Amino acid sequence: MLDQGAPPHHRGQTTAPPSPGLGARLMRRKPVDRLVAEGGQGEGGSLRRSLGLWQLTMISIGATLGTGIFVVLGEAVPKAGPAVTLSFVIAGLTALFSALSYAELAGTIPVAGSSYSYAYATMGELIAWICGWCLVLEYGVSVAAVAVGWGEYLNELLDGTIGVTIPNTLSAPPGDGGIFNLPALIVVLLAMVFLLGGAKESARANTVMVCVKIAALVLFCAIGVQGFRSGNYDHFMPLGMAGVSAAGATLFFSYIGFDAASTAGEEAKNAQRDLPRAIMLSLVIVTALYVLVAAVAVGAKPWQRFNDSEAALAQIMRDVTGQSFWGTLLAACAVIAIASVVLTVLYGQTRILFAMSRDGLVPKVFGKVHPKTGAPRANTVIVSLFCGVLAAAIPLGRLADATSIGTLFAFALVNVAVVLLRRTRPDMPRTFRVPLSPVLPAVGFGLCVWMMGSLSAVTWVVFGVWMAVGLVFYFVYGYRRSHLANAEK
């Protein structure tokens, strides 16, 4: 019998469960099984599994090796002096602890979203969005920063071969004495053309470029060591530990690419086996080469004479040999090497946005896959144009520091995510496990926070503004269109 005192619209009806509150929606986690099941699927097609261990390792090395040595070394040496080698070691150790966490999560959750997806599975949607927004800063802005350095070496090459250079007005951004950095825009557009051909074709081109850059750095060491002067190391740490940590924070920009392999989780043939191996192998190779080249560079040229030139290695080659040929040859190799960084980092950026689009947090145009090439075509064009314009208009130094802080923040979250997933899903099969967990992830988290604290106040302001813009975008767009939230209404 109906309750005669109940309002008419409640008679004969069961009470609907209350809708989740704001806090519950923001902390909603995406099940790991669902993340993996959706792997590769996009609008109009799917990504293709065509990459093996060799290609994945080359992607990581391609995205990492070259940036710090060919581009940022000239900025880091004046901050730390000869102790810049120690700065590379500190930055490498910081990356190593985070790489261990990346390796475990990449083998457990082999999807394209990298740390964005790991955060979604462990810490909830809001934290995942923040992490993804940091990755947009990490990958997208670093493409622009590296492209700026590419133009410096292109001018070195042109000067050594045909005796002309691109005018400063067209080879430097505003603030650095120019109007528009045309070479930076060109290299981004060239990378875009390769990426539009598909992951397999891009990986082949990247492998060739990586081999060239390794050969170039080995050649530099072989020639540069002839000009080595032990007196250049007499005052090893002239600017103290503060200078070493400041240079380390800047040089961390050099390590941002090692996690690029994790963005290829949906295009790897055997992701659970090969991703952890590729991440660790690439980091070891890159760190060894960075420290070796930095040691030779400072030994061959007093640290006081480093003048923030992005083409520092080519200048050292000319000074040691007294001939322009070797510097020109190194500049030619650097042009190829830095182009591979642009290619692979741009690849990672497009895959991050692909995963975010599939979750509804960014417009679905970023998730559309071309059925013939298996590449997210519109995504690639939009990201390339954005990064190209950014590279043409913003000075390198500010870009590098802004990228470092976004990278460190994302890495810190990955160290937290690996511990949380161990506790919430201890039964999941893991092809790699971080040793001494949670101690090593805690150390990785602490190192990331410490290096973030070494960055300038201006960089923190830029980061704060970037985060504020990201949160506005999330609450205006992503919060309302989240597929996970709408599926549970």
If you had to describe this structure to a student in words, what would you say it looks like?
By secondary structure, the chain is mainly alpha-helical. It has one domain (51-487): Amino acid/polyamine transporter I (Up-down Bundle), CATH 1.20.1740. The protein contains 19 helices and two strands. The protein has helices at 22-26, 32-37, 53-64, 67-80, 84-108, 115-122, 125-161, 168-171, 182-196, 199-224, 240-251, 271-300, 312-321, 324-358, 377-393, 396-424, 439-453, 457-481, 483-487; strands at residues 41-42, 45-46. Strands 1-2 form a two-stranded antiparallel ribbon. Helix 5 packs across helix 11 (240-251).
Offer a few descriptive terms:
single chain, mainly alpha, 489 residues, Amino acid/polyamine transporter I, 67% helix, 19 helices
Strand order of the largest sheet: 1-2
Order of helices and strands: HHEEHHHHHHHHHHHHHHHHH
Let me know the CATH homologous superfamily.
Answer: Amino acid/polyamine transporter I
- Report the structural category: mainly alpha
Uncertain spans, ≥5 residues at pLDDT below 50?
Answer: 1-18
Biggest sheet layout: 2 strands, antiparallel
Please state roughly what percent of the residues sit in beta strands, choosing from under 5%, 5-15%, 15-25%, 25-35%, 35-45% or over 45%.
under 5%
